C-alpha cells in the first residue's frame, strides 16, 4: 500500500500573535500550496528521495533531511505502542521555498509524520503527533514552536495554548477574508529574523501586544471581523523585521490604498500577507505585488483562504 499526504503552507504570528497564532493557507484557485509526501512499504528500513521545485535547496544526504529525523522520532514513539515498525520508502515533494515564512519546514515535518502514522494505521494520537512535530520544528529553528506545525496539521486558525496537555486549539475564522500572500523569492532564516529582535521590550509594548491579541481572539469568537482586522498590528517583530524585506514599505502603502484591512509579515518573512474582503481588490493587489514586490522567478503571489482541513491523505500518486 502507498499513500500521498499533503500538508498546507501556513502563516505564523498573524501580526497580532507572535509565537501564539498561526493559520493554514490554501489558494482559492484550487492550487496546492504545500509539501507532499509519498510513502509505501519498502525493502529496507528507510529509503528516501526528494523531488519538487525547491528540492535543490535541501541537503543531498538523506540523513540530513528533516524527514529522516521525523522517521527516527516516529520510530521511538512507536516503541510505546503495540504497532510494529514497517520498512518505509518515502519521497518528499518539496514545493515550498526554504526560509520563506510560509512554514516550509513545518509542511515537510507534518506531511512526513502524518504519512508515517497513516501507513501504520494511526497508532499515535493527535497530541502525541503534535508534540513530535513541535520537537522536529525545534531542530530547524532552534526552539520548539507550534505556530506553524499546529495549523499545518490541524487546519484553520490555531491559538497556541501549551499548558498541561493542551498544545493548540482552533479558534473561529472569517471565511470571507481573502489572504493575499506574496513570497518575493529571497530567503530570511528564522534565526536571523530572531536575532534582529530586541532582547527586551517596553512595558507599554507588551501591554499593547496582550490587549490586541485578547481583542482579536474575542472578535473571532464573537464574529466581529472589522474589530478583528483592526487588531492585526504587530508591535513585536514587524518594526524590526520589515527592514530585512526589500519593498515592504511600498507594498504596505499600496495594499492600504487598495482596500486591505491589514497587512503584515508572514512568520519570520520575507513573505507578506494582506487581508481583504473584495476579490477584485485582492486581484489588483496580487497583480501589483507580482509586478513590483517579487524579486526573481522563484517568487509567487496567491490569493488564499484559510485551509480548514490541514494535513490530509490525497491518494496514491504524486
TrEMBL record:
Subcellular location, record wording: Cytoplasm
A molecular function GO annotation: kinase activity
Location (main, coarse): cytoplasm
Stretches assigned to coiled coil: none
Pathway: Amino-acid biosynthesis; L-threonine biosynthesis; L-threonine from L-aspartate: step 4/5
Catalytic activity: L-homoserine + ATP = O-phospho-L-homoserine + ADP + H(+)
E.C. no: 2.7.1.39
Residue ranges of every copy of the GHMP kinase C-terminal domain listed in the record: 218-290
UniProt keyword rRNA-binding present: no
Residues in GHMP kinase N-terminal domain copies: 74-156
One protein family per Pfam: GHMP_kinases_C
Residues annotated as binding ATP: 97-107
UniProtKB keywords: Amino-acid biosynthesis, ATP-binding, Cytoplasm, Kinase, Nucleotide-binding, Threonine biosynthesis, Transferase
Keyword GTP-binding: no
Free-text function comment from the UniProt entry: Catalyzes the ATP-dependent phosphorylation of L-homoserine to L-homoserine phosphate.
Protein family according to the UniProt entry: Belongs to the GHMP kinase family. Homoserine kinase subfamily.
Identification of the protein by name: Homoserine kinase
Amino acid at each position: 500500500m502507498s499513500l500521498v499526504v499533503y500538508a498546507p503552507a501556513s502563516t505564523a504570528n498573524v501580526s497580532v500573535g507572535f509565537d501564539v497564532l498561526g493559520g493554514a493557507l490554501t489558494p482559492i484557485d484550487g492550487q496546492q500550496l504545500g509539501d507532499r509526501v509519498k510513502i509505501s512499504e519498502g525493502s529496507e528500513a528507510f529509503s528516501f528521495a526528494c523531488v519538487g521545485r525547491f528540492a535543490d535547496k535541501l541537503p543531498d544526504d538523506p540523513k540530513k533531511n528533516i524527514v529522516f529525523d521525523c522517521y527516527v522520532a516516529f520510530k521511538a514513539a512507536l516503541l510505546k505502542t503495540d504497532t510494529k515498525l514497517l520498512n518505509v520508502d518515502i519521497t518528499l515533494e518539496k514545493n515550498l521555498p526554504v526560509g520563506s515564512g510560509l512554514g516550509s519546514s513545518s509542511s515537510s515535518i507534518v506531511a512526513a509524520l502524518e504519512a508515517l502514522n497513516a501507513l501504520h494505521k494511526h497508532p499515535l494520537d493527535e497530541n502525541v503527533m503534535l508534540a513530535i512535530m513541535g520537537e522536529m520544528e525545534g531542530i530547524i529553528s532552534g526552539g520548539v514552536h507550534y505556530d506553524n506545525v499546529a495549523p499545518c496539521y490541524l487546519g484553520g486558525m490555531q491559538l497556541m495554548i501549551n499548558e498541561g496537555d493542551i498544545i493548540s486549539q482552533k479558534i473561529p475564522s472569517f471565511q470571507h477574508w481573502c489572504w493575499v500572500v506574496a513570497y518575493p523569492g529571497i530567503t530570511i532564516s528564522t534565526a536571523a529574523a530572531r536575532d534582529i529582535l530586541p532582547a527586551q521590550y517596553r512595558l507599554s509594548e507588551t501591554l499593547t501586544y496582550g490587549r490586541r491579541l485578547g481583542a482579536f481572539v474575542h472578535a473571532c469568537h464573537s464574529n466581529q471581523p472589522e474589530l478583528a482586522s483592526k487588531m492585526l498590528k504587530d508591535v513585536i517583530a514587524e518594526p524590526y523585521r520589515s527592514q530585512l524585506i526589500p519593498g515592504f514599505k511600498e507594498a504596505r502603502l499600496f495594499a492600504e490604498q487598495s482596500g486591505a484591512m491589514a497587512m503584515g509579515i508572514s512568520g519570520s518573512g520575507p513573505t507578506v500577507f494582506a487581508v481583504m474582503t473584495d476579490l477584485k481588490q485582492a486581484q489588483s493587489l496580487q497583480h501589483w505585488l507580482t509586478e513590483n514586490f517579487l524579486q526573481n522567478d522563484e517568487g509567487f503571489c496567491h490569493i488564499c483562504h484559510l485551509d480548514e482541513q490541514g494535513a490530509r491523505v490525497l491518494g496514491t500518486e504524486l
